Amino acid sequence: MDLRRLILVLTICSALIPFANTFYAGYLVQRQQLIDNTLEGHYAYATKLARSTDDFLQSALQQLDYSAKLLGPHMGDENYLSQEATRLRLQTKSFNSVTVLDHTGYVLATSPDTLQIKGKTLKSANVLEALETKKPVISSPYLAITGNFIIFISQPVFAADGKFLGVVGGSIYLKQESMLDTLLGSHFYHDGSYVYVVDKSKQIIYHPDGKRVGERIQNNAAIEQIHEGESGQVPLVNSRGVEMLAGYAIVPSTGWGIVAQRPRAATLAPLNELMRSVLYKTLPIAIIMLGVIWWSARRIASPLRQLANGAHDMDKPETAQNIQSVKSWYFESHELKKAMIKGIGLLHRNITKLREDVNTDPLTGLGNRRHLDAAIAEFQAQSIPFAVVALDIDHFKRVNDGFGHDAGDEVLRLLALQMREVSRLDDVPCRVGGEEFLLLLPKAPLHSAAQVAERLRALVESTPLPAVGHITVSLGVSAWPDSDADIKTVFQQADAMLYTAKRGGRNRVAIYGHNVSPTTQPAALI
Questions:
Q1: Mutual orientation of helices 264-312 and 331-359 as an angle, nearest 10°?
Q2: Helix (H, G, I), strand (E, B) or coil at 268
């Protein structure tokens, strides 16, 4: 991974991860707060409805109690009983129907008359309970002989002497419109929440969906708590498999449970919409910032990338110029650029020095055999003709034996200087052995090479050396391709001419294809 991508990834991660973490943490906190507030609100609402329902039931009992006191002296007056039943039903609309029974359960009067139970004896468990207890009773829901699913609220009727005469009761129809239905159905929330009521046996006695009245609920956490007589709040999955947030409370006088609940999805929907809105509104800025980060990363990384490419190609001649053109606009890249330019200069100097050391004889400073081979290869590749002058110091062993190796080394160094004096800029002087030397003369014909060889011979002979005195050299000359088309053969010819000069008396120049001539007759050499 290069620096640009690294900066881009790190910057995006450093921005995106905290944002995502904050966004998600904020969502979780708000979601939990919303759930808690919903649960608390539904619990408070269920508690309020439970109190209101209890107040309604107590009010209904008071109404019946007042009517029971009025009915005591008139239990034998059928007309009065009928009028009182009608008054009681119509006065507050607390009851769907009102019934007056004697102590045996015989119906003395009803309102409305459409019930068609007057003159009949009722034997239902709830009626019998009211007759047997002779106390105020709020019955459990039951199916009456009229076919209605009802709650029967009753008060005992006593004579002045305390004799039990019967009961007066009001019925609330759970599957029809009633005062209880109005009380529980007056729900002012439009957020998907609703209320239902169950009795102690887990049976629904009120539900917005009237078809569910009478249904028994199983596997519901809120209903189980109501069955235990507890109020509270709980997230749950209802009998229809829907996640709900429920608050529930007990009606003290009956043990009924009122449940106010709302689907969890409906509760969280506004939050989800809010978070989507926040995300959509921050997305354009995030895209712009991403572009700025990408551009900045590219600007920052560009000089370093160019410097890195330069470092990869540091051995190439044009690298220094390429690095020099890099726009290092900040401190670190500028300093790195300076260091690299300095390092490249040092490297090239070292490389040049190393190449010179590899191709140079350390004693004389002339080219060595490797340098000679490279020059030959270049001349051959470019088809450049050249002449070869092979030379050797006459009686060099006597110099070493008579004056020592230091004097011998000095003689070699002086001969190298003299070879350079007679050489052109493009000529290649080399030391190929102890006292053996070669001089390559590019584009020089054989007779010109012979003249150079003669000048060198004369220069060496006429130059006195400290301690040693005068020395002489023998030289052999050949040319490529004039002497032969094979380069190896040309060098062999030059070497053969060298030994021919030595055999001819030394201190001579021998030219391939010519007789060996003494140094006193240089004109014959050409």
A1: 30
A2: helix
Q: How far apart are CA 288 and CA 280, in angstroms?
A: 13
Q: What is residue 73's DSSP assignment?
A: G
Q: What is the pLDDT of residues 444-491, one digit of tens each?
A: 999 999 999 999 999 999 999 888 899 999 999 999 998 888 999 999
54: which residues sit within 8 A by CB, 6+ positions away? 251, 252, 253, 254
309: left (phi over 0), alpha (psi -120 to 50) or beta: alpha
Helices (H), 325-445: 331-359, 369-381, 396-403, 405-422
The catalytic residue among 435, 436, 454, 461 is 435
> Which residues are within 8 A (CB) of 55 and not within 5 positions of it... i.e. 6 or more apart?
none
Provide the whole-model pTM.
Answer: 0.57
**Does the annotation mark 230 as catalytic?**
no
Provide the CB-side half-sphere exposure for 256 (13 A, CA).
29
**DSSP one-letter code for 191:** S
Structure tokens at 402: 């008579």
Residue type, 83: Q
∠ CA 493-497-499, nearest 5°, is 120
- Rounded distance, CA 34 to CA 27, Å? 10
Residues 405-451 pLDDT 10s:
899 999 999 999 999 999 999 999 999 988 899 999 999 999 999 99
- DSSP β-bridge partners for residue 243: 237
Q: Is the dihedral of CA 259, 262, 264, 270 positive or negative?
A: negative
Cα separation, 80 vs 90, whole angstroms: 15
Give the Cα separation of 477 and 510 in Å (integer).
6
- Separation between Cα atoms, residue 472 and residue 502, nearest integer Å: 11
